[in-house]
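Predict the 3D structure for this chain.
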Amino acid sequence: RHSLIFSTMLCFAILKKREELDPQQMSFLLRGERRFGVDRPDSIIEWCPEPCWAAVQALADVEGTTPPFEKLPEDMVENNRWRMWAETEKPEEEKLPTDWKNLTSFQRLLVLRCLRPDRITAALEGFVAEQIGKNFVSDQAVPLDISFEDSTPTTPIFFILSPGIDPVQPVETLGIKMGFREDDNKFFNVSLGQGQEAVA
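Done. Predicted structure below.
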């Protein structure tokens, strides 16, 4: 999760530097604005919750798209394809209905932010991969022997642990590969805790 946040921030910074991001559109994506007070037409009540409709109303004020977002509320009311799109399992992988498929990949994020906010994380992952490369969103563990080459007695290796992760086995395997074994008293596995300071 945190790596995706970092990659997304990096991606947006690059696009902003290239002047490829519209400030108003960027603001909408980040803030998730809503404008309440506009009643939902009967044709969308079954599939478009009130918060989503309020988000669409706010999006209608965002400029700079073709077709213009101001036409989106009316199109949703008249076109049943919006319901079909919104109810798909992974709408971020589907084309938007009719001419809305001509929106840029960033502008599609805004529509998704309104109608399927539960899928925005997956959509951002795809967007970042498209813009700056899949390496920025895929989990890639660096082989321990490569990390070891970059370490020194004053630059140790730190493992950031998460549930279910145990680095002991890879460390022991690397030690054996390099000739450091517990049997030869060249490898010591010390579990730090209270009273272990002297041992360490």
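The longest helix spans residues 2-17.
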